[in-house]
Design brief:
It is built from 13 helices and 14 strands. The protein is α/β, with parallel strands linked by helices and 373 residues long. 52% of the residues are buried.
Length: 373
C-alpha cells in the first residue's frame, strides 16, 4: 500500500497506511547524530552488545517503568531496532513447534517472526468494546498451556491500540506461571497512552521480574525510526543466550545512532508527553468524524481499526475503495491474526496533522457509501 500510494504522486492522498510520524526526534538526539557521523569510533562493529552509555540508559528506562533493578552489563543488550531484538529473543527461547501466546489481532510482523523462529502462534482474542479493546480473559484462563513456551505481548498493541489493564496483565502473568514460560514484552509504545492511562509494566507484577524480557525501541516514543536502535532487558541467564544469537544474527547495531538514542532516553524534555498529546488529538478527531462507522477506540499507540463487515465488504475491498475514491491510503488486516482480521482496515494517525485529517468522514462516505462502492 505504501508503494502504491507513492506511485500516485498525489499530495491529496492521506497517508494513513504506514507507521511513520511527522513529529521530530528530540533536538539533542539530532545534534548528537550530526556529530557522530564524523566520529571514527562510531564507524565500528564494536562493541558487539552496544555502547555502554546506551545500555545504561535503556536499563535505567526499563527499571523506571518496571520498578525493578537490572544490571546493565549482564541484563541488557542493544539491538538493531526493536523487531531485531524480538527475533533474537525468539531464536534464543523457542524450539521447533513451541507455542507462543499472542493477541488477535496483532502485528503480522510479530506473527511471522514467531514462525521464522519455529514457533506456532496460539491466539487469544481482543474483544471490541465501547471503551476500546479488551482481552478475552475467560478464554485465556481456559487455554491449554502445555505447549506454550513464551507469551509475546505488546501494550499498547498494534494495530488495535489496546492497552492492557491490571486484570488482563495479571491473567497473562498467571498463564506464564502455569506454563512456566517467558513473557516477551514489546514495549515500543508503552508511554503513548491516552485518556490519562498509566503504564503497567508486566515485570512489576508479583513474581514476574525473572520471567519478563522487555524489548523496546527508539522508533515510536522518541520518533527515531531511521536510527534503527532497540534494546533487550531481561534476566541474566537468558540474556546470555540472546547475546549469542545477537552476534550470530545482525552482529552489531548502527554505530552513529546508538549514542543519540542514549541522549534521547536521558533527555528530561524527550517530547514523549507532548507528542502523545498531539497523537491523541488526531485520534479524537478521527473517532468523532467516523462515529457512524464501526471504529474501535484505541487507548494508545499510533493506529486504530475500522470494522467494515457491516458495509458488506472486507478489508482488502475497503482498502482499495478508500484509495481510489477517498484518497486514503489504509492497510487491510488480512493475516494479522486469525481469519477474522480480514474484516478490518487500519488507519495510522501518527503521520498526518489534524488540519489534513479534517473531512475524513466525507472521504469515507465517498469511498464506502456510494452506490457503486
Amino acid at each position: 500500500m505504501g508503494d502504491l500510494a507513492n506511485s500516485l504522486s498525489d499530495p491529496d492522498v492521506l497517508r494513513l497506511e504506514n507507521l511513520d510520524t511527522d513529529l521530530r526526534p528530540p533536538p539533542s538526539a539530532l545534534e548528537y547524530t550530526a556529530k557522530a557521523v564524523m566520529d571514527d569510533n562510531a564507524n565500528s562493529y564494536l562493541p558487539f552488545f552496544g555502547l555502554d552509555e546506551t545500555r545504561k540508559a535503556a536499563t535505567s528506562l526499563v527499571a523506571r517503568m518496571s520498578g525493578n533493578a537490572y544490571d546493565w552489563k549482564t541484563e541488557c543488550l542493544i539491538s538493531a531496532g526493536g523487531l531485531s531484538g524480538i527475533l533474537n529473543v525468539l531464536l534464543a527461547t523457542l524450539e521447533e513447534g513451541d507455542e507462543v501466546l499472542m493477541t488477535n489481532p496483532t502485528y503480522v510482523g510479530l506473527i511471522n517472526r514467531v514462525r521464522l523462529a519455529g514457533g506456532v502462534p496460539q491466539f487469544v482474542s481482543l474483544l471490541p468494546k465501547q471503551e476500546g479493546w479488551r482481552l478475552d480473559v475467560e478464554a485465556l484462563k481456559a487455554m491449554d498451556t502445555s505447549k506454550i513456551k513464551l507469551a509475546l505481548i505488546m501494550s499498547p498493541s498494534m494495530p488495535t491500540g489496546c492497552v492492557l489493564n491490571v486484570e488482563e496483565w495479571q491473567a497473562i502473568a498467571d498463564v506464564c506461571k502455569r506454563a512456566d514460560c517467558w513473557l516477551l514484552y514489546d514495549s515500543a509504545m508503552e508511554r503513548i497512552l491516552f485518556d490519562n492511562l498509566k503504564v503497567i509494566h508486566p515485570a512489576s507484577l508479583p513474581g514476574m521480574r525473572d520471567r519478563v524480557i522487555t524489548v523496546g525501541a527508539a522508533s515510536k516514543e522518541y520518533r527515531m525510526i531511521g536510527w534503527r536502535v532497540g534494546w533487550i532487558v531481561g534476566p541474566a541467564p537468558i540474556m546470555a543466550d540472546v547475546a549469542r544469537v545477537s552476534i550470530s544474527n545482525v552482529v552489531c547495531q548502527t554505530g552513529i545512532a546508538m549514542g543519540a538514542v542514549a541522549v534521547a532516553i536521558n533527555e528530561v524534555n524527550d517530547g514523549v508527553k507532548a507528542s502523545t498529546k498531539i497523537w491523541e488529538e488526531r485520534r479524537n478527531l478521527i473517532l468523532e468524524e467516523l462515529k457512524d462507522y464501526k471504529v474501535i477506540k484505541p487507548q494508545g499507540g499510533w493506529s486504530l481499526l475500522v470494522d467494515v463487515s457491516e458495509l458488506g465488504i472486507d478489508g482488502p475491498t475497503a482498502s482499495k475503495l478508500l484509495l481510489e475514491k477517498g484518497k486514503i491510503a489504509a492497510t487491510a488486516m488480512v493475516n494479522w491474526g486469525s481469519e477474522i482480521t480480514a474484516k478490518y482496515v487500519r488507519l495510522v494517525y501518527a503521520n498526518e496533522p489534524v488540519e489534513r485529517l479534517k473531512g475524513i468522514k466525507k472521504r469515507f462516505d465517498d469511498a464506502l457509501r456510494t452506490k457503486d462502492a
